[in-house]
């Protein structure tokens, strides 16, 4: 019964169908934002000459920019954002 405050079995099933048909937020962002258009600005601001080839490679400036956007959208801490990024790198 609507308005009773308790969800029934069919309410949960309909909610699951709606969620399944809905695109994830990150996919919608990727489809609606032309991320590569930011690359020239980011490369210019992130340009560093490497003194040697030792050490790890730098993180792609576009990835750093995406992480900043996600931090603002989802109110993530810097540490959490980097841990999530490392988890994705380790799962490759």
Furnish the topology, listing elements before pairings:
Blueprint: H1 9-21, H2 25-32, H3 39-45, H4 61-74, H5 78-90
Helix pairs in contact: 4-5
Overview of the structural elements:
With 92 residues, the protein is mostly helical. It has a domain at 59-92. Helix content is 60%, strand content 0%. It has helices at 9-21, 25-32, 39-45, 61-74, 78-90. The termini are far apart. The mean pLDDT is 78.
Which structural class fits the helix and strand makeup? mainly alpha
Terminal-residue CA separation: 48 Å
Looking at the structure, what is the overall shape? elongated
The arrangement of helices and strands along the chain is HHHHH
Query: Roughly how much helix do the residues carry, as a percent range?
Result: 55-70%
- Residue stretches low in confidence (pLDDT < 50, at least 5 long) are none
Q: What percentage of amino acids are in beta strands?
A: under 5%
